Automatic annotation (TrEMBL), chains A, B:
It comes from the Bacteria. Pfam families: DUF1507 (PF07408). This is UPF0358 protein J2S05_001258. InterPro entries: UPF0358, UPF0358_sf. It comes from Alkalicoccobacillus murimartini. Belongs to the UPF0358 family.
Length: 93, 93
């Protein structure tokens, strides 16, 4: 497959993964901003489910050779750090 | 993107989705074959999680333009039929 074509497909895949990650990031930010409000118990489950879904997409993109494993790991670990922050702040309250 | 290249990437994506679906199908078959044994309560949750993961992969492949939405729906609905069979047989026992 020509490099040029692979890159456009790979770029599209990476951009899609980043935008999916961004949606989860926004969910986390909303929760962080509303820490003073009573926590919706399901929130962590919603985030866990979204994270699992994103991890399946990343794994699929890596197996397709569209995204490097390292790139995928970075997307997930960045979100996991934010989730950990959210969890710590929630527990401290 | 040249048709030829798209097809090879699309074929690879579709083949990956089918092999992931096959893994779930095997899980269902094992459960069907062992219906006489006490049911592992987590089994349905494992299958649900796997189905959710596969649906995220399919959605990702469709958004990437690698797989037709209809193709994705067929993969899922075939598995859902088997899951329904499994559920019916489990409930009848």
């Amino acid at each position: 497959m020509s490099i040029k074509v692979m890159t456009s497909q790979a770029e599209k895949a990476y951009t899609l993964l980043q935008s999916d990650a961004e949606k989860i990031r926004k969910l986390i930010e909303v929760q962080l901003e509303n820490l003073t409000m009573p926590q919706c118990p399901l929130y962590e489950e919603v985030l866990d489910t979204r994270m699992f879904g994103l991890s399946r997409e990343i794994d699929f993109a890596v197996r397709l050779g569209l995204v490097e494993e390292e790139q995928g790991k970075q997307i997930l670990s960045e979100l996991e750090r934010r989730l950990a922050d959210l969890h710590d702040l929630t527990v401290q309250r």
